[in-house]
Every structure is written in structure tokens, then in C-alpha cells.
Amino acid sequence: MRNARARSSAGAALPRGLSRRSLVQAGGGLSLAAVLPLAACGTGGGTTGGKTPIRFLYATGDETWNTVAKAVADAFNAQSATAVVELDPLPAGSDYATAMKTMDATGNWPALVDMRDTATYLEAGKLAPIPAEVTDLLNEEVYAPSEDGEVYIVPTTALNGELGFNIVYDKDYFVEHGLAVPATYAEFIALLDAVRSNGDGALATAAGEVWPSDQLWKPLAAPWFARYDEAGGFWNAVAAGEASIEDLREPLERLKTITDEYVIEGWQSTQDAQTSTLLVNGQAVMATSSAGIGRLNDIAKVDPGFNAGIFAVPADDGALHVLKNSVNGDTASGFAISAQAREDGRQYDAAVEFLKFYFAVGTCDLMEEQGMIAPNIEAADQIRRNDSIPGAADYFALLENPDLTWFQNDSAMPAFSTFNTFFRQARIEMQDGQTTLDECIAKTQEEFENLAAEG
Amino acid sequence: MSAATAETPAPEALMRPAAPRGRARAKRQRTVMLLFIAPALAVYVVMVIAPSLQSVQLSLTDWDGVNPAYDYVGLRNYQDILTSDRFWNATRNTLVLGLGSAVIVNVIALAVALMLDRLHRAQGFFRTIVYLPALVSGFIAATIWKYMLNFNFGAANTVLRDLGFEGAAMDWLGDNDIVVGVLLFIICFTLGGNTTLIYLANLQSVPQELVEAAKIDGASGRQVFRYVTWPMLAGAVTVNMTLAMIAGWTIFDQVMVLTAGGPGFISETMAFFIYKVGFGEYRAGYGSAAAIVLFVVVMATTVLANRYMRSREVQG
Could you give the 3-state DSSP secondary structure of residue A284? Predict the structure, then answer.
């Protein structure tokens, strides 16, 4: 019976009209059919209506930047006869570094990239030089040639350093309770105390993603980092053995104290964008931010009636230490043109055309209208500044503040971005009470030394 | 003469000349089969096998994942991994989530399957309801949970606060004491559908004659399950436990979406750790070494667990 079934099923497998040869041919055909689409995946390029399409990859963060990117791309596409910019936004919360690595691994570089970890990709030969016809449009302080004399990165927005790392607050609450913007660190703590004693949430901050944890840490640590400004920066001093993570004990203690005493519950899982909502909803009177005027613009969109203000966390002596942007190296960020685009001359030309458009006065006016501070172009005095956003005047006043002190803190360590991610997580761990301050310092020092040793 | 008799194999003398033809036919059929699987095999070799083998080589380097230039560093990556607290924390989480989810999912799935098996009406409807969560991708399910468990605005805490249980509102995804447990709950919720269906299919293939015979002999419902149904399910338990453990060892989506390994490093799993160091921190060599270690752990635990469960099957 079993054999009968076997024969019967064999017969069913080969119906009349379907010979073995045809089966073999079908199998071969299927193989080919499967391979051809895969091969087709490797092809690319092409044009859109005779124009060269180029992609622009950028990290979506605050809503203002998203709006600016779209508005500028639309304006460019409307006037360009030769190129079309297609936006390639990476949604907030995604790991931008990973997306860039994936893009690199698949050989799928867009022509224009909102660059991070610049030195890593520059060293790997993934970036193309930005020509003088673009850099000539910029203030010469906001770009710099690399070791080979070429410029690889230009800013997407005004390089006002980390002035955007500040505290956004509810002005009406301050007026109602007779509170004032602090002039010293002691006054800042007194302010937090005053809000807490009113029974209100003093400060909202976020660590749901790792990077926003910098928003509270960096202003607190700035006075300590600033001490190494003339010595080539704190991190280089650590690498040289002239400083150590132990030197950051006091700002780390302050971070822990503020987190424990004044930050509202749930910060560990709060996303960056949620801090604006917490502020507008009255769940917190102050919120950390790293978007500067962009954050004010976001708040104004959510609640045009909300009276927002900005202040920077002062040092003990009242100085406002603010990190100056790096225009080169791993921490420099901004526009880059990919080396892959240069291989296709049309893509490179289109990218250059877009950058020239981006740094034109008319486009800068458009950015200001959307709520972003335009890049530092050579013709900056012709830009129509937008001071209509509630709180924007506070931001511009910070730029003019006599206590404002710029400092630099670039790191020459190739693996600094790796270390920085670790340090952020180690700080969150300490803030959360999973480790002690001593453990945090010890493991951070160890990680730094390990990565420095790896070169 | 019955049909079966008519199909009785021919005498050996008649079969002998046909054997070479049979072998040739079998060979041709194998060729056809190979051609059919060739496309999938080619893709699998290129996309999975080759990179996996290459990761062994990369694990011995300091490659950053971007720059084509790298140096061989011997076993330093392995040494660093095995002496890293972060790695062992990820290993512990993986064991908790992997073994925990395997046991919990199997217990719940078996209970649900037993209930479904006894249903005489609307079984299809309830089967669909039970299976639905498995149809949603882990990433999407985790995103929905993330909104629901948001400390400030999530449905879970809002309901608790509205009901007057303000103290019960927790930072579900940010409290380091509970975050791994919350992940375990969400993972179990997503993984249960397939397991339940496998148990249900096995339950429905348990010969009713045995069940009825046991009942006639005076066995209680519990005794029927213990001495008839459970031994018949031994194969399904092995399959389900193995699948659940493998899924548990490689948990990634939920961690990525819900906590990103935080707060700090507390909820990192091995798969997430590999991703984080290999892709986010530009340490592809180090990440490859971690992946090799994960492979060894998965293979060893799966083989051991499988061997144990197979031995139980024989006894059963």
C-alpha cells in the first residue's frame, strides 16, 4: 500500500504535459527570476523630469529644523532647472549614527548629509571637499580646512556654540511668584528651591534617549571644562594625563543633587520633545533644552499664548561659560557632500548648487521666518532677523551678555564619540542611583583609558 | 484481490532491471529540487553564512565599521568583553528574558490552548483573538506599549491616577527596579500566539480513544492530563521551549524601542549590546566578538536544553 501511495504521489508531482525537462527549465528560470531583481537592486541614479535628484539625509529633532529643511528644499526645487532635492529624514529617537553606518555599509550615501562623527567618515574617505564657491558665501570663522587643506563641513545653522543648551522657563509663573532669572549658580539653586517650595515641578529634563542627558550636564560642567580652554581642552588634558575624570567630581555632584532634589519624576524615560509639553502643561516651571530658539519656536507653535523665556545656567561667579563650536574634527557638525556623490559628477554639482542656494540671503530670510537662526553667512547683515518668537529676545540678549565667555574643548581621541556615548550612559546610571559617584568616575576613567589605548 | 494486493511490489527479478532507471530518476529529481532551492540558498549564503563567517575574522580586529583600514588585535576584544560589567549585565538580562519568557510563555500558552481545546463554540474566533498579537511586528507592538506606559501621558498611569491610585503610577520604562520585568511582560504578550497554536494543534491530535479509555478507567480530568495528554505533548514542549529560548536570546526590538537599553545600561540585552557597540559606537570588531560569544551561548544552551527535553520525551 505504501508503494502504491508513493507511486501515486510521484504521478501527481508530474502531471501530464509537464515533462522533467520543463521542470528543470522552470527551476532554472526561477533561479534567474530571483537573481535578476537582486541584480536590479544594485542599479540606481536616474533623473526626475530631466533634473538630477539628490538626497539630503538629516536627523529630525526639533520641529523647527524639520520645517526649515522642507521649506528650503521646496524653495530650491521650485527654482532649480537642473536638480531636485529629496528629503531623507531620520525620525527622532532613531539612532542616527547607526543609520549612517547602514547607509555606508550598503553603499547608499545621499549626496548631502547632516553630518555627525565627522572625523570618522573623513578619515575613511567618505566625504568630498566643499568648493570655494560655497565657502566664500560664509563667514570665515564658521568653517576650516582639514589637514589636507580642503573644507569638508559647513554649518546648517548659526554657530552660536552651545548657547542653545539652556533652561526654557514659564515667564508668567516667574512674574506671578516674584522670581528672577538667576545671576549665579547659588541663585539658580535658590530658584529651584523656591519653585519646589511652592509645590510645583521645578525642572523637566529627559533621558529617554541618551543624548538629551547632555542638556543639564553640559551647562553644569562648563565652568570646569572652561579651565582647560587654553591648555587645549579638558579631554586632551585627560588623554595627556594632566587631568582626570575625578576633576569633574563637583559638577557630577551638582548633577546628582539637582536630579534628586528638583527634577520632576519620570525623567529616565522622558523623551526630549516631551519636556516642552511638560512646560506648556504646567507640569514643570523650567525645562532643559539644547535647541535654543528652535525650542521656543516649537513651544510657540504648540501654545502661541505661552510666555516662554530662556536663561543660561550661570557659574558660581556669574560667568556664562559656553562651548564654542568646533568647525573641524569629530564634534563638528553640519552639511557634508558624500564622496559617492562626487563619483557621479551631476550629483556633486547638484549638491553644490543646493549649498549655494542654502547660503543665499533670501534662503536665510526663509529660515528665519520658519524660526531658525540662519547660518553665519558673509552677508549676515542683510538677513531679516525674526524676533517675533516669544522668548527670542532672551536668546539674542544672551549673545550680547557681558558675562558670556566662550571656550573650546575638542578632543583629538579618534574614539571620542564612543567614549561620549558611554559617559552619557554612565552619568544617567549615576543620576538614577544605580551606581555611586565614585563608581561612575572610576568606570568612566577606565573606559576613557581603554579607548585611548586602542587609539 | 484487494487494491493493496494489486499494488504489491513486483518480485525481485522484475525489480532489478528497473533499479538503474529509478536511480537516474531520483538523481534528476534531486537536481530539480536543488534548482528550486538554489535562489534562496544563494541569497542565504551571501547574506547570512558568509557575513557570519566573516564576523569571526572581524572579531579579531579593531575595525570601526567604516574605515576599510583596520589592525588585528588578537583576542583582545574577547578579553575586554569577558571582563566588562556591561556585558555580564546584558548576559544576565538575556538569561532572565530568554529563559523567563520561554517558561512563562509556554505555561500560559499551554493553559490557553487547553481552554481553547475544550471550547465547542466559537473556537475559531477565540483562536484568532489569541493569535492576533503575534501578527503585529515586535517593533510596532513595542511602540504601542511605549505610548501606553509613558510616565507622564501614558494610558496606564492616566487610568491609575484617574482611579485615585496616584502612588501606583510608575515610571514603567525608567524605573531600574522594574524595567526588566516590564520588558519580560511585554515580550511574553507578543510571543504567546504561535506557541498556543502549536500546543492546540498537538492537543487536537491526542487520540480520543486514549482519553476515553482513561476516563472509563476512572481517571479524573487532572489524571487524564498528567498521564495521557502531557506525555503526548512532549514533542510540542520541546519545539516550543526551543523556539521560545532562541527568540529570547535574540530579543532586540522591544529593548530598542522601549528603553534603548536604559536607564543607563540596566536593560541592555546581548543582542542590543552587540548592536549598540557595533553600530552606534563604531566598534565593529568588538561587536563581532560579542556576536560570536552570543552565538556560542545560544548554541550551547539550546543544545543542552534540547537534549534534556528530548530525554524527557523518551521517558514520557
Answer: coil
Note whether A283 contacts B152, CB cutoff 8 Å. yes
Rg of chain A taking only CA atoms, in angstroms: 27
Which chain A positions have a beta carbon within 8 Å of B35's beta carbon? 24, 27-28, 30-31
Question: Inter-chain contact A208–B174, Cβ cutoff 8 Å?
Answer: yes
Residue A312 in contact with residue A163, Cβ under 8 Å? yes
Of A238-247, A259-268, B284-293, B294-303, minimum mean pLDDT range: B294-303
Confidence of residue A32 (pLDDT cuts 50, 70, 90): very low
Q: Residue A87: CA atoms inside 13 Å, Cβ hemisphere, count?
A: 19
Interchain proximity B172–A269, CB inside 8 Å: yes
Task: Give this prediction's pTM.
Answer: 0.80
Cβ-based neighbour number of residue A17 at 10 Å: 6
| Ranges in chain A annotated CATH 3.40.190.10 | 52-160+328-378, 162-324+390-454
d(CA A19, CA A15): 8
Q: Inspect the interface and report whether the beta carbons of A428 and B172 lie closer than 8 Å.
A: no
Q: By the CB < 8 Å criterion, does B1 face chain A?
A: no
Of A447, A441, A446, A437, which is closest to residue A417 (Cα–Cα)?
A447
- Domains of chain B by residue range: 3-46, 77-315
pLDDT surpassing 70 at residue A111: yes
Name chain A contacts of B4, Cβ cutoff 8 Å.
1, 4
Q: Is A15 helix (H, G, I), strand (E, B) or coil?
A: coil
Q: What tens digit of pLDDT does each residue of B62-80 get?
A: 998 888 889 999 999 999 9
Which CATH architecture best describes the domain A52-160+328-378?
A: 3-Layer(aba) Sandwich (3.40)
B150-209 pLDDT per residue, tens:
999 999 999 999 999 988 999 999 999 999 999 999 988 777 888 999 999 999 888 889
For chain A, helix (H) and strand (E) counts, in that order, are 19, 11
What does the pLDDT look like over B117-139, one tens digit per residue? 888 888 889 888 888 888 888 88
ipTM, two decimals, is 0.77
CB nearest B35 (choices: A27, A265, A270): A27
Backbone angles phi and psi of A319, in degrees to 5: -70, 150
pLDDT, tens only, B40-53: 999 999 999 999 99
Pairing mode, if any, of strands A334-338 and A127-128? antiparallel
- pLDDT at position B313, please? 66
A329: Cα separation from own chain's centroid: 15
Class of domain B77-315 (CATH, top level) = mainly alpha
Question: Which of B27, B89, B151 is the best substitution to test chain A (most A C-beta atoms within 10 A)?
Answer: B151
User: What is the distance between the alpha carbons of residues A53 and A55, in angstroms, rounded to a whole number?
Assistant: 7
Summarised one tens digit per residue, pLDDT across range A397-429 is: 998 899 999 998 988 887 888 898 899 999 999
Contact A152, A118 (CB under 8 A): yes
Kindly state which CATH superfamily the domain A162-324+390-454 is placed in.
Answer: Periplasmic binding protein-like II (3.40.190.10)
CB-based contact A195:A179 (threshold 8 Å)? yes
Q: Quick one: pLDDT band at residue B17, thresholds 50, 70, 90?
A: low
> Do the chains contact at A34 and B39, CB–CB below 8 Å?
yes
